[in-house]
Recover the amino acids of this structure.
């Protein structure tokens, strides 16, 4: 257990997570929010799992598994990506399986990862890009201290001649 709140905890990726990650990464219904266009092989994901313990300063990213505290059931994952220690910033992405949504767990996850980013990694800011149509995610991030700071017009291609706007949200640490 790495970081813990009332209902969830975050932990490092373990080898036994590779099958679940394979299922999630190859779920085409969520490719639009993860900017994925091709399936992941089991080999690639097993390699990722086997080497994900490496230093965030080397990989510039970190994936953590989200589990329910009461059951130890894996319910999602959270990513820190584009980690930039020079400018003290990183992107944040959260995936919570549909069976566990609308229970406040994503909010707890975002609070935990924000605390880790600010207090352990000493980042000045974390950010996310969210499709304008993804109202639930926009509300989640705004509720947890993120501010909509820019609208990227026609940023995300949804089909051959169709594009969607994307919000850029930032959570800036104004503390110490």
């Amino acid at each position: 257990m790495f970081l813990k709140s009332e209902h969830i905890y975050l932990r490092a990726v373990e080898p036994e997570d590779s099958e679940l990650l394979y299922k999630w990464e190859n779920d085409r219904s969520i490719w639009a929010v993860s900017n994925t266009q091709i399936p992941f092989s089991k080999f690639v994901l097993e390699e990722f799992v086997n080497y994900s313990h490496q230093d965030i300063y080397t990989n510039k990213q970190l994936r953590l598994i989200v589990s329910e505290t009461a059951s130890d059931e894996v319910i999602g994952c959270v990513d820190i990506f584009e980690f930039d220690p020079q400018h003290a910033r990183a992107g944040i992405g959260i995936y919570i399986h549909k069976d566990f949504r609308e229970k406040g767990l994503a909010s707890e996850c975002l609070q935990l990862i924000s605390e880790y980013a600010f207090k352990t990694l000493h980042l000045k800011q974390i950010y996310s890009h969210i499709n304008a149509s993804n109202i639930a995610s926009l509300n989640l991030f705004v509720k947890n201290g993120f501010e909509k700071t820019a609208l990227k017009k026609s940023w995300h291609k949804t089909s051959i001649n169709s594009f969607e706007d994307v919000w850029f949200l930032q959570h800036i640490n104004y503390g110490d």
Remarks:
- The longest strand covers residues 147-159.
- The two ends are 27 Å apart (CA to CA).
